[in-house]
Amino acid sequence: MFTGIVEELGEIVAIEHLGDASRFQVRGPVVTEGAKHGDSIAVNGVCLTVVDIVEDAEGTRFSADVMAETLNRSGLGALDIGSRVNLERPMALGGRLGGHIVQGHVDGTGAIVDRELSEHWEIVKISLPAELSRYVVEKGSITVDGISLTVVDAGPDYFTVSLIPTTLALTTLGVKQAGDPVNLEVDVLAKYVERLLGRDNGTQDKEATS
């Protein structure tokens, strides 16, 4: 489990295409400290499994295999060598939940619509797939490229977020422009509530007709 608090901006240093999958090499000295084969690291909000760790003169990098389902559902397939990515290690047991509960399972992708610069922050409008809009509410939580953010305004096919200088400086949202894709993960608690309410309604309907 992650919290959506980005630890560092990493860089894609190599991509090996393997037919229905790809192997990424990602440079990130902070998240690779103490990491080993089989550990998890979130890359732009996608939970990936470390295959190996390599150290060289330019720093430490890790490799991870990305299957076709992940490439199709997320924006990882659009990354190139040199792309900057948000990196986060899983939350340690007993650690502080600085953002919100993030699984690293991307629900879909949106795109930057526009950016409105204010004196001390920036308002960013992001498109939202229609099937995800029911999970996004004003003042609720959403994960954008692995960043835990609070929704300012929620529309039928978009939402807005306010970005403080720290977020702009330390994550990919500081450089992404209109049209750039972003990975979206909605609040998993909303999905569980929907499922439970759906089951309750189904049971009640069945009892009423029996």
UniProtKB/TrEMBL annotation:
Catalytic activities: 2 6,7-dimethyl-8-(1-D-ribityl)lumazine + H(+) = 5-amino-6-(D-ribitylamino)uracil + riboflavin
Repeat region (Lumazine-binding), residues: 1-100, 101-197
MF terms in GO: riboflavin synthase activity
Residues annotated as domain Lumazine-binding: 1-100, 101-197
Enzyme Commission number(s) of this protein: 2.5.1.9
InterPro entries (UniProt xref): ATP_synth_asu-like_sf, Lumazine-bd, Lumazine-bd_dom, Riboflavin_synthase-like_b-brl
Primary enzyme class: transferase
Alphabetical list of SUPFAM superfamilies matching this protein: Riboflavin synthase domain-like
Statement: the UniProt record of this protein carries the keyword Transferase: yes
UniProt keyword list: Repeat, Riboflavin biosynthesis, Transferase
DNA damage found in the keyword field: no
Pathway membership: Cofactor biosynthesis; riboflavin biosynthesis; riboflavin from 2-hydroxy-3-oxobutyl phosphate and 5-amino-6-(D-ribitylamino)uracil: step 2/2
Coiled-coil regions listed in the entry: none
Biological role stated in the UniProt entry: Catalyzes the dismutation of two molecules of 6,7-dimethyl-8-ribityllumazine, resulting in the formation of riboflavin and 5-amino-6-(D-ribitylamino)uracil.
NCBIfam families from the UniProt entry: PRK09289.1 (NF006767), PRK13020.1 (NF009566), ribE (TIGR00187)
PANTHER family per the UniProt record, alphabetical: RIBOFLAVIN SYNTHASE (PTHR21098:SF12), RIBOFLAVIN SYNTHASE ALPHA CHAIN (PTHR21098)
Descriptive protein name: Riboflavin synthase
Originating organism: Streptomyces javensis
Organism taxonomic ancestry: Bacteria, Bacillati, Actinomycetota, Actinomycetes, Kitasatosporales
